[in-house]
Amino acid sequence: MTAQLERGGGVAVWRQIAQILATEIGQRRYGEGLPDDRLPSETDLAHRFGVNRHTVRRAILGLAEQGLVNVEHGRGTFVQAGAIDYVIGRRTRFSENLSQHNLKVAQQILSAHKVSAEANVALALEVPAGTPVYRVELARRSLDDQGIELPLAYSENWFPAARFVDFPDVFAQYTTISATLATYGVTDYTRRESRIGARLPDADIARHLGINRQQPVLSVESTDVDVKGKPIKYGIAYFPADRMQLVVQGDAA
Questions:
Q1: What three-state secondary structure class fits 57?
Q2: DSSP secondary structure string, 62-82?
Q3: In angstroms, rounded to a whole number, what is the distance separating the alpha carbons of residues 162 and 145?
Q4: Which ranges of the chain have pLDDT less than 50?
Q5: Are 13 and 7 in contact (CB under 8 A)?
Q6: Which of 156, 159, 221, 249 fits a disulfide with 89 by CB distance 3.0 to 4.6 angstroms?
Q7: Domain 84-248 belongs to what architecture?
Q8: DSSP strand pairing (149-160 vs 190-199)
Q9: Does the predicted model carry a pTM greater than 0.85?
Q10: CATH 1.10.10.10 matches 13-79
């Protein structure tokens, strides 16, 4: 049976195949604990997706670049270790999370500007609707020794503008949220609430995560507070479900 692919939708066919296989790996259809951790042959995959073997080979190369599979010549393609654990606790920090897996993180500030707080943002930050806040969009990727980047997260973050004056400029200088907040006297903060969900991505989220819109994402909607319990950040982060799995610690809010 030929799998359904989006043709002419802006995402290369080989990349769509890689994403489908990556999702299936994440769902443990192949891999550790199963009778066979080998992917189907190139011929079988070509038949399944209705493409030539060259396209399948490029998809498998993409999976190998992501560290999801290992190609053993003469034997086949085998699944590597599973998705990256992302721990959610009272002190959730993206860079620290990834450093525990010996992963280098590359961060890109996609946009940072002042906006009026919409109802959901105002509620989370405990300010009136329409209050000026800074909205910061971030894309985060793992970076291997060969310089290959793998998208791991896309997030939208809001900060009270009155408390964090010129936040985008300071953030561009210090590059991490924790270091930036420290310049405003917020040397420690904790997670008050984390709301976890799953959904299909819209076009922007899919583009930033390098996936197509048929691939599910995990979402974490969160509010961070200072030591006095005052909200300092509201955010929504999206993770590709085939690359990341969320682990909630016992002390998580």
A1: helix
A2: HHHHTTSEEEETTTEEEE-S-
A3: 41
A4: 1, 33-35
A5: yes
A6: 249
A7: 3-Layer(aba) Sandwich (3.40)
A8: unpaired
A9: no
A10: yes
